[in-house]
Amino acid sequence: MKTLSWRKAALMAAVVPMLALSACSSTGGKPVDAGSNAGSGQVATTDRIKIALITHAAPGDTFWDIVRKGAEEASAKDNVELLYTSDPEGGRQAQLIEQAIDQKVDGIAVTLAKPDALKDALKKATAAGIPVVSFNAGESVSAQLGAFTHFGSNEKLAGAAAGDKLKAEGLQHPICVIQEQGHVGLEARCAGVKEKLPETEILYVAGTDMTQVSSTVTAKLQATADADSIIGLGAPFTLTILKAVTSAGSKAKVASFDMNADLAQKISDGEILFTIDQQPWLQGYGSIDALWQNKRGGFKIGGGQPVLTGPTVVDKAAASAALTFAQQGVR
Amino acid sequence: MTQTLTRPPVVDERVGRRNPLQKLLGRPEVGALVGAIVLFVFFASVSQTFIQPNAFATVLYGSSTIGIMAVGVSLLMIGGEFDLSTGVAVISSALTASMFSWYFSVNVWVGVVLALVVSLGIGYINGWILMKTKLPSFIVTLATFLMLTGLNLGLTRLIGGGVSSPSISTMDGFASAQAVFSSSVNIGGVEVKNTVFIWIVLVAVASWVLLRTKVGNWIFAVGGDENAARAVGVPVKATKIGLFMAVGFCGWVLGMHNLFAFDAVQSGEGVGNEFLYIIAAVIGGCLLTGGYGSAVGGAVGAFIFGMANKGIVYAQWNPDWFKFFLGLMLLLATIVNLIVKRRAELK
Is the pLDDT score of A63 beyond 90? Predict the structure, then answer.
């Protein structure tokens, strides 16, 4: 008897969803055919080369999806075989560089979030005659570590741009929400904001748990009634912050860094003031393309200076244009 | 010679009535309760905001998102096992519901039901491997934890083309599912998140099962001594697998809250949260070795965590010290717990 009822339950559990399959959702869901215009153009006639793209991305961060898409598109055009790897821990990222050297790649594009850990591995790369480009993080140490150029946005300038923009909106007491305590780039953004608006307060949240982000932000808003604005440092976090602000009934204005489609939509709807975009797609695309150019004719873009991909301010006026591209996953 | 013997009234100490106070102090959760009261008084004295009703609702919400999982994890710990896969299993559940509904463009409730099946399935597999191999649950669930972390990332990119699940907020059934898993109730002008009530209900059900049913006795028995339990006829295998499935159920509830509160789920989330659930259970007086503890204790442990976590924000302390204070408070709460329990046992 008992086993029978168990089997029945299991059968129900399997069949009910199947039946319900016929109950299609009339809105939302997967677009029937998203279509893609990436990599459909002509491919460079140069010999196929191998380039390693090595980042400090933590698994599951949307930002790096966009970087990767840019790199993939450049690879498709430039006849490049792209080897994408990442590890948030400095020591292991260095090992990835050494592995790339072992694989005899023709170029390395690397993020320098933890430059000290990567120093020796990069020395080996340049000694082996592999051209190196740095991107995203490590602008100040890039040349010193042997990269011939750097693609990225200066985090402190980006923070200052956000501070200026808030000031122009008449706001002066923002809360700057850092989702990863001790992250140099994120701290620099908030420091940039604080440079322009000295009343800026910093709030740390656990970025790995959205419910805690939401409840900690609510707590902070209740504790700091005179805060007039709040800044998220990544698109998914800003969207969660926006929900917390709305449900707490706070009047604080929301601003953001970085971009995704939902964020672009909210900016265009006027729910979020603006975002500071460092155009990650350009960082991925530029790094691969610069290495290809180097291979093609020994070119070195940038003249020994970093190539800035941001900061660009995307406000309501600019959001609708950015939205189309954000939906394609390139903004 | 007949003589009336006047025997002194000897009462077996095992069945004798105990001093009610002593009985109370012997409960597993009482140490945590004292710790919670101390912490509450402390934060109430350093922060004006902390005792306001809406701030308290926020603290409760923060506690509930830990506490819902702590219910299952406490029961499992009383049953003598660990589960390290809980943090990412929550996200797996949320991803299953959102990706399935999105990919096939079906009513989100279909995804919700499928997620429940998947969550219970993860629990079942954990328990089944454990019973089949007799490996420590630490190893088995560590393996599940790693595999789920990889599956979350891999499948999300494969299906959705990104590392974050697509937003399902415009799909059919979203509004009703949101009302069930992530809404607020207005109590005297204060918005209280419904996860708080779900949490309380789960704690009540778990307590009833533990203290009033046959299954509750089985749980204590398998956690105390597995072989002795088997010898007296307790279905050890079914009990342990059932406990892992209960953890899976709690993970499903929290996963659905995550999904419907934020529309989209980041596939890399959840790593590290499993420790928070275990911490809550341990502070609440569940023994790491099994056989002792309570569901209420786990809830009080989650509440302590929620108070410490949010209290530091209300007290406006320098955020650089946040983690230090958090650790210190957890340590103090556990020590208070220990002292109270030892005192009670000595008497």
Answer: no
